[in-house]
């Protein structure tokens, strides 16, 4: 990613995370990106491209935060992933998953739906590999998505439940 595309994607992600997908005008998005309208449209020619750029940027940041520096011991990896997701939710996504919010705002956008699917699949696959739970990606998705979706309601109690479910899954595997 070039510096300018990084700058634009960072600004767009922040704007959509703070204001949702319907509220910010293109002028607001330009201001958030810190570029001219011409530059914004050069790198993201439509609002849909702006949303996708923001989500792709968020995906990369999320993967770095969640999977960087995981313990090599598979029995410690899943609790570490859950803790990292809790930190993400606390600092970045107190209202829930931005990918789900984007799809909810544009339910007929197949590209957005595919971004959501790809994001969730990669998170589940990486978690399964790190935790030694290959073949349990669907179960892991349910645990991690349950954490993400219930965080706004239950906070740290959701973390404790996710860890307990993860422990039971690992024990049963």
TrEMBL record:
Going by the UniProt record, its keywords in alphabetical order are:
DNA-binding, Transcription, Transcription regulation
**GO terms, molecular function:** DNA binding
Q: Which lineage ranks, top first, belong to the organism behind this chain?
A: Bacteria, Pseudomonadati, Pseudomonadota, Alphaproteobacteria, Hyphomicrobiales
Gene3D superfamilies assigned = Tetracycline Repressor, domain 2
Provide the HTH tetR-type domain boundaries. 2-62
According to the entry, DNA is bound by residues in 25-44
Output the SUPFAM superfamilies linked to this UniProt entry.
Answer: Homeodomain-like
From what superkingdom does this record's organism come? Bacteria
List the source organism. Answer: Roseibium aggregatum
Q: Which InterPro entries match?
A: Homeodomain-like_sf, HTH_TetR
- Name of the protein in its database record: TetR/AcrR family transcriptional regulator
């Amino acid at each position: 990613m070039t510096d300018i595309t990084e700058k634009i994607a960072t600004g767009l992600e922040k704007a959509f995370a703070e204001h949702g997908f319907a509220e910010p005008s293109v002028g607001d998005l330009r201001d958030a990106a810190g570029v001219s309208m011409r530059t914004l449209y050069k790198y993201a020619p439509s609002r849909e491209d702006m949303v996708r750029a923001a989500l792709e940027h968020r995906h990369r940041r999320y993967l770095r935060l969640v999977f960087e520096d995981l313990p090599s011991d598979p029995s410690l990896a899943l609790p570490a992933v859950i803790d990292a997701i809790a930190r993400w939710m606390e600092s970045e996504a107190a209202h829930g998953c931005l990918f789900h919010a984007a799809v909810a705002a544009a339910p007929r956008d197949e590209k957005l739906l595919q971004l959501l699917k790809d994001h969730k699949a990669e998170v589940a696959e990486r978690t399964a590999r790190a935790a030694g739970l290959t073949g349990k990606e669907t179960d892991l998705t349910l645990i991690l998505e349950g954490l993400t979706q219930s965080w706004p309601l239950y906070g740290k109690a959701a973390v404790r439940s996710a860890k307990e479910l993860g422990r039971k899954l690992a024990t049963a595997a």
